[in-house]
């Protein structure tokens, strides 16, 4: 009988890409548990909605009774935990949801997972895996000449979002060391690619550039991020899930440090090429705005551990990945209209109201 993976947050940006990749590879059954908040979109997984190897369950990881019943019914051999509030700006304006989902929700999921895992046979318990997907932001900010973050870099989160993810990372670590739960934590750099909600930097800039709207850049635009194509990230998660050592942390990065302004200028050039228009080049739409509070200056990931131990490396360069991403957003207007117009929220309310 094929093994089953429970994916939390599988209607979101990275989770949906991961599920599509696993189903395409034919690596077993996938159950997708998602609360369908504003950034969760079932259209992301439309192509497999009728596939017998896939099941969607609408629910909250904090609903322990629901999670308990789901684990008992599906008997997963692994859990991949994506479900999280992720946007720094939103966490600054309203941190409550970030604590509730990222900390309390992860705790509830761990508790139910521990109870389920404890009741498995010896063989099933030995093969069970819990993979927690986290972020480079838990490590804080780097100076211009500092070495990239490694798995041993001390935590120093600077936003409510990163603090909530740091707390969840510590809980996952504690459940391994205290109870023996076979966990992994992956900390990734900034992802980009299809299905990312348009509030994030890259899709926002693509869409504004296409429409001739201002391209707002925080501060001086020199904040540096390491960019990772989402499909490369998903392949790395599968590597860790299938070959990683329980109790370990793996940093996943793209080896693509770019200043925000450089990223935006690259997007402008590609949009000018793919969707030309009369008038000035789109770089002239760039508008500098007041920096956000506590804006980390630089992130960079040292991904040598996962490369050395598991043989993973990103396939996409930033140049190839960003070109694919721009084209996807320009060619999928229905998806964009759906997630930005409010129609999708109305559909969810009609179909999943409680």
What does this structure look like?
With 354 residues, the chain is α/β, with parallel strands linked by helices. The chain has a domain at 4-196 and 229-254 and 299-314: NAD(P)-binding Rossmann-like Domain (Rossmann fold, 3-Layer(aba) Sandwich), CATH 3.40.50. 45% of the residues lie in helices and 16% in strands. The strands form three sheets. It has a seven-stranded parallel β-sheet with strand order 3-2-1-4-5-6-10, sandwiched between helices. The radius of gyration is 20 Å and the shape is globular. The two termini are 34 Å apart.
Features:
45% helix, Rossmann fold, 354 residues, 16% strand, alpha/beta
- Contiguous uncertain segments of 5+ residues: none
CATH class of the domain at 4-196 and 229-254 and 299-314: Alpha Beta
Strand segment tally: 12
Largest sheet: 7 strands, parallel
Largest sheet, order of strands side by side? 3-2-1-4-5-6-10
- Write the CATH homologous superfamily of the domain at 4-196 and 229-254 and 299-314: NAD(P)-binding Rossmann-like Domain
Terminal residue distance: 34 Å
**C-alpha Rg (nearest Å):** 20 Å
Q: What would you call the structural class?
A: alpha/beta
Given the structure, what is the number of helices? 13
- Approximately what portion of the residues adopt beta-strand conformation? 15-25%
CATH architecture of the domain at 4-196 and 229-254 and 299-314: 3-Layer(aba) Sandwich
